[in-house]
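Q: What structure does this chain adopt?
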Amino acid sequence: MTIKIIIADDHTIVREGLKSLIDSMGRDIEIIGEASNGNEVLEMAEKTPADVYVLDISMPILNGIEATDRLIRMNPNNKIIMLSRHDNKELVKKALNFGARGYILKSNTGEELVNAIKEVSKGKTFLSPKISAFMVDKFLGKKHQYEKKKKSVDLTRREREILQLIAEGFSNKEIAEKLNISFSTVHVHRSNIMEKLNIHKQAGLIRYAINEGISGL
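A:
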């Protein structure tokens, strides 16, 4: 049985490398779509769902963790593997809490990625060996469930989108254009975010977004 996958990374050269690895090592794996950000993944998932989604954690506009959240909300049975340069424990925990079933470091071998795709397609969990032992103990022994931890601050979906774009350095005008909303609406959302977080400087918003996995910068 062929495993249909969608791969997402904002770097074309990375996607080409992934395709080459999968084509050469995963004969029973078919790439049915490529995306450069989370929004594109969601559009593809609605039109042509995949068996497994392989997502870069640090994509622009909508990152891998946020895209995972939306994919699971769309269909709790969606299976997602997160790709990352980082073995940061907090990022791993956030990815798994939001519903990812796999976490692979980009420094790993192609064979490991292919194995991860096969295992995750069966409903299993797959973590890179370099991920710390306590992560394995905490998550591999559990039947996978979508249980997102309660956030200390309740930001709306739109506020999280805007916060990610703020963290990526976009101005209010640019954010309005990207999200197809008015400048004044962006300003209102930005003010609400600052009020909820009690953070009133750009640097503070960026730090918060990175710490909460809203931005993978």
